[in-house]
Structure to design on (168 residues):
């Protein structure tokens, strides 16, 4: 009798305005358990509280998660809060990984251009974080193929990210 594997609990990090629709596709795959999606209103409420309120919200959402999955759109890299989430996750000993989602369609049916790797902005032991953690770029241009590829592989990618983090 095979033991049912518990779905890993992860924190999804993404550029809300630009990529919320794409991100929700990944979150709703049901393969891994992510943080609760926030609505526009919730996010406005949180941000109104300033930096401390945002940091508190991030800490609360990351609690009990074993990995952060950065969903990389065209303008994800370099954003203040995404950088904060990556740094916090790494410093808290969580797995860190990225998935390029620019080829998933948004609600208007548009794809976007590939953004730069957000892990290029960090250095661990004089090595770029992008050389340590993986950022997966699905090898397809059709949105449905990209979706299927992510759904098939995301659980393994999360496990790999946790193993990588445990080496450091």
């Amino acid at each position: 009798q095979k033991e049912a594997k518990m779905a890993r609990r992860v924190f999804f990090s993404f550029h809300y305005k630009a990529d919320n629709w794409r991100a929700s596709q990944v979150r709703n795959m049901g393969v891994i358990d992510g943080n609760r999606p926030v609505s526009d209103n919730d996010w406005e409420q949180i941000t109104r509280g300033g930096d401390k309120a945002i940091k508190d919200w991030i800490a609360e959402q990351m609690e009990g998660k074993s990995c952060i999955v950065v969903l990389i759109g065209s303008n994800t890299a370099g954003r203040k809060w995404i950088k904060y989430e990556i740094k916090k996750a790494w410093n808290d000993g969580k797995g860190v990984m990225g998935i390029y989602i620019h080829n998933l369609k948004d609600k208007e049916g548009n794809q976007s251009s590939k953004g730069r790797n957000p892990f290029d902005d960090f250095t661990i032991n004089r090595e770029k974080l992008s050389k340590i953690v993986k950022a997966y770029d699905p090898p397809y241009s059709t949105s449905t193929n990209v979706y299927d590829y992510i759904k098939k592989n995301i659980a393994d990618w999360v496990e790999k990210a946790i193993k990588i983090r445990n080496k450091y």
